[in-house]
Amino acid sequence: MAQVNIESRRSSLPMKLGYGTKNFIQDNMGILIGFFVLCVVISFINPNFLSSNNLLNVLRQTSTNLYLALAMTMIIILAGIDLSVGSIMAVTGVVTTSLIALFGAPVIVAVLVGLMVGVLIGSINGYVAATTIIPPFIITLATMNIARGAAYVISDGKPIRVMSESFNFIGSGYLFGVLPMPVLYLIILLIVCYFIMNKTKLGRYMYAVGGNAEAAKFSGINIKRVTFFAYAFSGLMAAFAGIVLASRMFSGQPTSGEGAELDAIAAVVLGGTSMTGGYGRIGGTVIGALIIGVLSNGLNLMGVSSFWQYIVKGIVIIVAVYADVIKRRKS
User: Fold this and answer.
1) 123-141: per-residue pLDDT in tens?
2) Is the CA virtual torsion 132, 138, 143, 149 positive or negative?
3) Rounded CA gap, 324 and 250, in Å?
4) Which residues are CB-neighbours of 82 under 8 A, at least 6 positions away?
5) pTM over 0.85
6) Reduced to 3 states, what is the DSSP secondary structure of residue 228?
7) Residue 183 sits in a domain of what CATH number?
8) Of the candidates 258, 91, 64, 87, the residue with the CA atom closest to the CA atom of residue 172
9) Burial (CB count within 10 angstroms: exposed 0-12, middle 13-18, buried 19+), residue 164
10) Which range of residues forms the domain containing residue 169?
């Protein structure tokens, strides 16, 4: 009988997680309106905002944040956190460019090694988070410092310039001369992450573990495996973001990715994912990242100092978290 109950609960999860366009609009009505108003205001202040070149630039810049935010959505749904993604970006960018510029490695080999470095760090985060009682905040804070230090040690604190056309095409090229390659990667990753979270058992298990870990455990869900996957995937996405960014900058820099984890978390929170776990949507994260990207771009167009942009982003995060708390209390 217990087994029947467990299976019935599992089989009911897809119905509960079914998600259509109508539900998406209803759940994200607030941030959709905010996003629309933000775009209108910025376009009135500076008409150049709506130019095709600028909009493509916004998408290109937002794509890097979204690589991180997609994986961060999974981790926060699990009621976790990953502070190491910015540092993983730096160390993987430095490792990849070092292999190409200093050791003459083929681009494909260097990229694969860089991705493996990210997966390794993410796997360490996931293993420790899954098998110990150390909070993910502390675990990823430690690996954040280790990875950043490794980036400085490997590069000796200096940018490593790469002049390979094939490598630079990864982040600076265009598909058919129109679509930036980082945006193409983003479209593919969005499809993959949406499929994982909405069409697979793994995605349903993430919601179950984040909502109630004890209940998920008694339902037969392997919590350790789910946690390990989320952090390993986050390491992979951070490594990919670091390689794309290094390609765009034509160099691997130990300072790259500084503060990237905060932008990713802000995008996830703005998108409606609960910091307490168990609830969140990939679509909401996309809107949250677009708001941050449009906000940064708009402030740049208006000539606002980058120092003030940090303050604005901080206020946005506080407001978003407070709105989430109020929403949860009402529901």
Assistant:
1) 999 999 999 999 999 999 9
2) negative
3) 40
4) 71, 72, 75, 122, 125, 136, 140, 231, 234, 261
5) yes
6) helix
7) 1.10.3470
8) 64
9) middle
10) 61-330
